[in-house]
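Example 9 (inverse folding). The structure is encoded as follows.
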């Protein structure tokens, strides 16, 4: 089995790429995909550890996109970076960093003192986000965990929320395809995505833009939602994946290997990557 959606300290996870590989080996996973937010910097470390431990590591990314005004996450697997993709990713990461002072200012106005230095002390990689603000609040004893910080201040619609930069959904799919990747829509039935990623929209993304798969299995999809998405993927003739969306201790209920994809389905994913000229 494979866990096809994980995060490391390179973005907003709490485990290093090596630690993820070690945990995957302990769990008996065949492999996993490292899909840090808008950054590929952890792939080499993860693959080196995977080779040592006998765990296959798939080079992945979770790209920040937008559709109909709603944030959508797009998983790309088997990426061979292109100059255009590198440029877009660098812009997304720069925008992620630029919004942090605005969030800190809004927190200050809410009577919650926080400094940029305190936030950056929580950052281990090159992709900065709201979880690092949450971690700074945890470190100061203001909240008990990330979920509390998001619920009180940082989630969309809460008083310290600042939108992150994104790319257009179709543009994102095209960029990833051009980099040789197989492209899967992440957790399409959570939060705002559930309102705009209707069955009809997903079907259009498949027929008109070559979407390769749907993340049907996810900790935030209930049993009925998973069953509906697996059936939809079969109807559309695309891959249905299952993944934990592991962030280490940063997300409760998303433990590595808690939701997985069978080896046969992952093999189909790897064949798509190979046919597209991606990194397998």
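The amino acid assigned to each position is listed next.
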């Amino acid at each position: 089995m494979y866990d096809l959606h994980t995060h490391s300290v390179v973005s907003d996870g709490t485990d290093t790429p090596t630690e993820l590989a070690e945990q995957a080996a302990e769990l008996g996973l065949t492999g996993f995909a490292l899909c840090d937010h808008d950054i590929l910097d952890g792939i080499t470390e993860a693959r080196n550890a995977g080779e040592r431990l006998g765990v296959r590591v798939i080079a992945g990314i979770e790209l920040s996109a937008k559709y109909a005004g709603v944030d959508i996450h797009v998983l790309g697997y088997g990426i061979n970076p292109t100059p255009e993709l590198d440029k877009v990713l660098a812009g997304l990461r720069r925008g992620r960093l630029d919004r942090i002072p605005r969030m800190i200012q809004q927190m200050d106005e809410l009577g919650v003192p926080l400094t940029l230095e305190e936030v950056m002390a929580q950052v281990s990689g090159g992709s900065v986000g709201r979880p690092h603000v949450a971690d700074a609040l945890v470190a100061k004893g203001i909240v008990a965990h990330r979920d509390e910080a998001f619920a009180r201040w940082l989630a969309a619609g809460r008083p310290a929320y600042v939108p992150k930069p994104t790319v257009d959904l179709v543009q994102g799919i095209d960029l990833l395809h051009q980099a040789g990747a197989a492209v899967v829509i992440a957790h399409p039935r959570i939060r705002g995505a559930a309102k705009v990623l209707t069955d009809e929209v997903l079907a259009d993304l498949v027929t008109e833009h070559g979407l390769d798969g749907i993340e049907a299995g996810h900790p935030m999809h209930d049993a009925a939602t998973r069953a509906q998405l697996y059936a939809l993927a079969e109807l559309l003739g695309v891959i249905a994946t299952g993944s934990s969306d592991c962030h280490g201790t940063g997300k409760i209920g998303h433990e590595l290997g808690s939701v997985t994809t069978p080896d046969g389905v992952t093999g189909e994913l790897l064949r798509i990557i190979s046919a597209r000229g991606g990194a397998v």
